[in-house]
Task: structure prediction
Amino acid sequence: MTTEPLTRLVRSLAHTLAADDPADGELLARFAAARDPAAFEFIVRRHGPRVRAACRAVLPDEADVADAFQATFVVLMRRPRAVRTGASLGPWLFGVAHRIALQARSTRFFGTDFSFEDLEERDVDQYDYKLTGEDAIDGAACWRIEARPRQGK
Result:
């Protein structure tokens, strides 16, 4: 029994469905201009499997893969205009995912309670501090300090 007619039908349907999908450039423009959540979701659905594969190729731990995957799309969310053209969105996401995964593998940053915001430089004089307790971590004495932004005057 030949499967050629079925194969042609599946290819035809896939082509028809793909033809109705908005191009990456259109989705990127919609997200960059109006923060359109549907456009962003479409981008994640379209490129998510390749981004996850790029992360998985570098990272052995599935939790680290998930963190790198999410971080890749956070970068896109924060800087959609960093992508030069809509046609380059796929390769751009792959490159970002690969670099984040390499960083995760080399620094072991992922899988911790830290975030990129924790690494941003802050003006320490703009905060009020309060000692909230003392702990021992791995035998070392540690202070628990609460930092709150000062209220504007």
